[in-house]
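Milestone M4 deliverable, item 7.
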Amino acid sequence: MAVLNKVLTQRTRMALSRRNIEFVLKYQNASLEELAAYLQRQKAELRHIPARTEVIGGDFIELRFRGWSNALAAIGVNRALAAKRGTPALEKTALYQAEFNTQREIDKTAKAEAKKANKAKKNPGIEHKNRAELRVDEEVTRRTMYVLQLQGFKCPQDKNVRKTPEFRTAYQQQLAAFEQEQAAEKEARRAARQAERQEPAAEESTQ
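Output delivered:
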């Protein structure tokens, strides 16, 4: 168990680091107003004034606003309260705990898939999830665990969290939200490509 916890801790830190990098790449050209809007959403999810370690992109936001208290002030937090906001250790945050639980579930899923793969070798008719489905499941599971963590849900130690009604309900909600996001991004890319194709035509017509 100690070895597994050490492995999960390493994976959790790596996953959070990767998510922070992805955040920087996504928001590197964002305005302070856009970053403030993101931080406001995080505040609403957490239901309290967020600390730098409690949100993905915290270090980047602090850098852009030249101080975390400035970032909090940008979302309407009183400067006196902003200055007093402490910075809890990463391991104590809901963000970390949710990611740790996600990595534990991913580990369980990976082991289960390995067993299925071994069975599939003996029986080619057995199907198992492909990589794309696993990536979707990983992302939706991560979001689900984060929501449950914020809600204060505690899974009984003798029960698989995936089999609890709380997880199933939250998972379906997060899956629906994820699919909507993917559809919106796909439509945005399609519209962007269409706009790019129309620009040369418009230039030619004006010449």
